[in-house]
Structure formats: structure tokens, C-alpha cells
Amino acid sequence: MPWRNTGWLQEALLAVTLAGAVFMGFIAKIAAEIKSGERDKFFTKRLLLDVPALIVMCVIAAGLNIWFGLDGWPSTSVAVVCGWAGPRSIDVMIMAFADRVRGGKP
What residue ranges are annotated as transmembrane (predicted)? Predict the structure, then answer.
């Protein structure tokens, strides 16, 4: 059916797939943090702070996929890596920037 190949449907499916892949990477990272003892449990206030970072990582994953021209499994793996590294790496970068602005660490 021709309506299945329209641009908006393909873009919506891509967004849902990338968001799911980023979410899976995020879940894997939280499971690793719980296992290592960095987190006590899954549902905490810290999880609410990670949700905006997940949205940003979805956009970054989509941008990387477009930039490198990735399709299929490679694009999904980029999204999973973004989900794994995303919330914590964004937190580390923001804290380093905040320390530099405050004059704490050189």
C-alpha cells in the first residue's frame, strides 16, 4: 500500500525505534548501576532527572544516524550506545561545567 511508504510514517517509525533503543540502553545502564551498588533501586528521584537526558539522547542518536547515513541495525546500535552513555555522561559534563563556572576545579 502506498500510504505505508510516505515520509511522515517512516519518520514516526524511526523515532519510535530510536527511542526504544535508547530506552533499552538506559535500562541496561541502570541495571548495571544497581548491580554495582551505585543505585539502591530502579524507581528513585534520580530517575526523574534522567528522563530529560533520555530525550536529548534520542535527538543525538537521530542526528548521528543522519550524519553518518546509517540504516537498520547500525542505527539501532548507535541509539543503544547513546542510551547507555547518555544520562550519566550528560550529568558529568554539566557538573564539570558547573564546577568550572563556580571556580571549583580548574
Answer: 12-31, 51-70
Cα angle: 24, vertex 73, 82; to 5 degrees: 40
Asked if 63 and 23 touch (Cβ cutoff 8 Å), the reply is no
Residues ≥6 apart with Cβ < 8 Å to 60: 82, 86
Q: How far apart are CA 106 and CA 102, in angstroms?
A: 10
φ, ψ dihedrals at 69, nearest 5° = 65, 40
Please tell me the distance from the alpha carbon of residue 55 to that of residue 84, in angstroms, as a whole number.
Answer: 13
pTM here is 0.63
Cα–Cα distance, 75 to 104 (Å, whole number): 39
Residue pLDDT, tens place only, 76-97: 888 888 788 876 676 777 788 7
Residues shown for the chain: 106
| Grid cell listed for 85 | 552513555
What residues contact 85, with CB distance under 8 A and at least 6 apart? 25, 29
